[in-house]
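re: the backbone from monday

yeah here it is again, tokenized this time
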């Protein structure tokens, strides 16, 4: 009982995050002024640079959305109920809200980061 409630809450968090990121991406796509041909060469160059930056941001957003989709699949297909992928402890909902794409608890995440730092 308690578990399915938790799963429902996690799903809600992920769906909300997805909707939010999806919206951001839509706005970004809309702001790309394709077809605008006014202005001189300098204007066009500025616009092109601007477009490149936005496309980069768009791609980063898209990756975020992909990981959110994966996280959602983890819940719906994999039966994930928010336990840490390393130690199996339940991750607090607050943390899932802040880092919806992570499947590690705070402790394991910082351990992992330390290991990664040590490798460099
Ligand atoms: Zn852990």
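seq for it, each position gets an aa:
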């Amino acid at each position: 009982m308690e578990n399915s409630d938790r799963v429902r809450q996690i799903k809600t968090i992920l769906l909300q995050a997805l909707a939010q990121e999806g919206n951001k991406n839509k706005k970004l796509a809309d702001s790309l002024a394709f077809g605008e041909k006014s202005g001189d060469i300098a204007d066009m160059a500025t616009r092109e640079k601007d477009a490149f930056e936005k496309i980069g941001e768009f791609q980063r957003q898209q990756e975020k959305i992909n990981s959110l989709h994966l996280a959602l699949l983890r819940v719906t297909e994999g039966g994930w109920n928010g336990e840490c992928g390393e130690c199996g402890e339940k991750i607090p909902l607050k943390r899932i809200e802040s880092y919806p794409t992570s499947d590690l608890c705070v402790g394991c995440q910082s351990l992992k980061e330390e290991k990664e730092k040590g490798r460099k």
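The helical segments are 2-31, 41-76, 93-98, 106-119. The domain at 2-119 is CATH 1.20.120.910 (Four Helix Bundle (Hemerythrin (Met), subunit A)).
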